[in-house]
């Protein structure tokens, strides 16, 4: 008799469900629900480009839809499937994505009083409004609690928990004062499914707490009251209404409530794993282990590797998380990433690429990829910085912006596209180099996400720039599959490491570095590094006067 599990993946623009056979990793059915609110599910503010919020009702509506539809698909296409044999549910979400909630764990935005208040909504990971608060937190921690920054790269980010809550308190005290507490999105969904309506009973994710809320058992969990009180006295009071302990995802958050069993058609009582962030669970479905670097290529990127807890990796400057248990038990999860990758390409095609390349977005991308596949590295004379949405790793600075250098009156749109692809790959290489500089060796790279499947030109460029073979996960839904594996793992006899080894499947196609391209990209990367350090750091002492001329020389060499 086969055993099944459901993975629920809440992304930036949509949520999805996947049902897998946990005995072999086979995917039986999937379902996707696009968030209806705002633009592609994101609620913005035209007066402030840093605002990015979501409607919690989208999560609730989507949750019911994707479970019911994936169940229907599995029952239709697999006659041997029996929903009674579903042994677990796992949940992943974006993060840090805090939700102000009332005493019964209900999001404030669902209450009539706050339904039109944008600050009562979910604060999406890509909301960067709290950059000043992030700077304050970094400064205070450096002054009196430097250990708080040891596991988050030395700099606190505006994308993270405390910065967003502090900013909310300052700009919308009416919302802050009405909130009994705050929940990460990845903690809210398991609590919702389990029928938990007491904030003290919510099992909090060590993945979210450790990577985004400065949680670590060695200093007593969350930051102490004195530290929080120096930021704002009301944060000190809030700490009592948060949590003392956070859990890895091979622990149970609860079991499916009767209410949600009736809504979805699942049986009551199915165990639900503690939630985590999407990329961390996705890494497990990509086969992450020591020496394996997993890279989710999407609107942004998230990079994950793991190190046995016996190895001392307390601090990697600029890398946004080193947390025990955030990916696999008894391993430090190392997290990094880039704030925009696919988003840069979408911006380019929607705003810059002329209609001569095609009448639709897809046609424009197809034309550009065909044209640039014939271009040699360096032949455009262009180089770019991948900071169109700030820098997440290693500079950790949302106040940085993009740069394109080397344009002439002959520059074509597809050449610009290639330059931005190369820039994102250079950013990825910068992250790998920093991690390796601190003793964490990267032997292979496994990618997942839409770009890794759809864009073969991009993948070859990445292989050439990273100078490593690139593998691609077989599943298009690795985050959801990883969540399903953790849902199964909370049952006796289902070890997460064994589940990973059985179910983390890889595609046959492997992208091998081209030695000639590698040589050229090393020269371009040297220029990228100069630009990266010159515009992104305060103490760079170099000279940029040769960059344009070096680009021209490379261009002429390739033509």
Structure description:
The protein has 559 residues and is α/β, with parallel strands linked by helices. It has two domains: 4-277, Nucleotidyltransferase, domain 5 (2-Layer Sandwich), CATH 3.30.420.40; 342-432 and 514-558, ATPase, nucleotide binding domain (Nucleotidyltransferase, domain 5, 2-Layer Sandwich), CATH 3.30.420. Helices cover 39% and strands 18% of the residues. Strands 17-18-16-15-21-22 form a six-stranded mixed β-sheet, with helices on both faces. Strand 15 (292-297) and strand 16 (301-308) form a beta hairpin. The mean pLDDT is 94.
Number of domains: 2
Strands, count: 22
Average pLDDT rating: 94
| CATH superfamily label of the largest domain | ATPase, nucleotide binding domain
Uncertain ranges: none
| Broad shape | globular
How are the strands of the largest sheet arranged?
A: 17-18-16-15-21-22
Query: What is the CATH level 1 assignment of the largest domain?
Result: Alpha Beta
Helix content: 25-40%
Class per helix and strand makeup? alpha/beta
Number of helices, where a helix is a run of at least 4 consecutive DSSP H or I residues: 20
CATH architecture of the largest domain: 2-Layer Sandwich
What is the CATH T-level topology of the largest domain?
Nucleotidyltransferase, domain 5
Largest sheet: 6 strands, mixed
Q: Separation of termini? A: 62 Å
Beta-strand fraction estimate: 15-25%
């Amino acid at each position: 008799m086969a055993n099944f599990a459901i993975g629920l993946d809440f992304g930036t623009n949509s949520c999805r469900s996947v049902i897998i056979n946990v005995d072999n990793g086979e995917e039986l059915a999937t379902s996707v629900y696009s968030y209806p609110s705002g633009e592609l599910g994101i609620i913005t503010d035209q007066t402030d480009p840093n605002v990015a919020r979501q409607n919690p009702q989208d999560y609730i509506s989507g949750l019911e839809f994707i479970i019911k539809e994936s169940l229907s698909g599995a029952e239709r296409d697999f006659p041997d499937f029996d929903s009674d044999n579903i042994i677990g549910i796992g949940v992943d979400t974006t993060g840090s994505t805090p939700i102000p909630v009332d005493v019964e764990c209900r999001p404030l935005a669902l209450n009539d009083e706050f339904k039109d208040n944008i600050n009562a909504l979910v604060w999406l990971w890509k909301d960067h409004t709290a950059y000043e608060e992030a700077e304050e937190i970094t400064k205070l921690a450096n002054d009196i609690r430097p250990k708080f920054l040891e596991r988050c790269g030395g700099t606190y980010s505006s994308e993270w928990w405390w910065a967003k809550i502090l900013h909310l308190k300052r700009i919308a005290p009416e919302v802050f004062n009405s909130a009994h507490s705050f929940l990460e999105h990845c903690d809210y969904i398991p609590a919702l499914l389990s029928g938990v309506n007491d904030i003290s009973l919510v099992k909090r994710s060590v993945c979210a707490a450790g990577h985004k809320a400065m949680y670590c058992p060695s200093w007593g969990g969350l930051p102490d009251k004195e530290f929080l009180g120096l930021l704002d006295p009301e944060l000190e009071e809030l700490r009592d209404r948060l949590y003392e302990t956070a859990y890895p995802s091979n622990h149970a958050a609860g079991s499916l409530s009767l209410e949600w069993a009736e809504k979805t058609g699942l049986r009551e009582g199915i165990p639900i794993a503690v939630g985590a962030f999407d990329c961390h669970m996705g890494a497990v479905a990509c086969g992450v282990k020591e020496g394996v670097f997993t890279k989710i290529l999407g609107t942004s990127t998230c990079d994950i590797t793991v190190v046995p807890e016996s190895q001392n990796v307390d601090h990697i400057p600029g890398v946004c998380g080193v947390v025990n248990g955030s990916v696999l038990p008894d391993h430090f999860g190392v997290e990094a990433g880039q704030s925009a990758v696919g988003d840069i390409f979408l911006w380019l095609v929607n705003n810059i690429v002329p209609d001569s390349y095609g009448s639709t977005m897809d046609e424009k991308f197809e034309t550009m990829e065909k044209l640039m596949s014939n271009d040699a590295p360096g032949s455009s004379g262009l180089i770019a910085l991948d900071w169109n949405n700030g820098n997440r790793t290693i500079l950790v600075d949302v106040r940085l912006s993009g740069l394109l250098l080397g344009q002439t009156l002959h520059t074509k749109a597809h050449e610009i596209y290639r330059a931005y692809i190369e820039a994102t790959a250079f950013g990825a290489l910068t992250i790998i180099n920093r991690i390796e500089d601190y003793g964490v060796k990267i032997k292979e790279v496994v990618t997942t996400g839409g770009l890794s499947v759809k864009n073969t030109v991009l993948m070859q460029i990445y292989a050439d720039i990273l100078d490593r073979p690139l593998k691609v996960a077989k599943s298009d839904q690795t985050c959801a599959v990883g969540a399903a594996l953790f849902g199964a793992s909370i049952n006796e006899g289902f070890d997460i490491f064994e589940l990973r080894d059985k179910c983390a499947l890889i595609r046959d196609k492997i992208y091998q570095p081209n030695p000639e391209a590698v040589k050229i990209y090393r020269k371009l990367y040297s220029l990228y590094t100069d630009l990266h350090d010159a515009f992104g750091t305060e103490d760079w002492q170099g000279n940029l006067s040769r960059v344009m001329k070096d680009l021209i020389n490379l261009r002429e060499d390739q033509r």
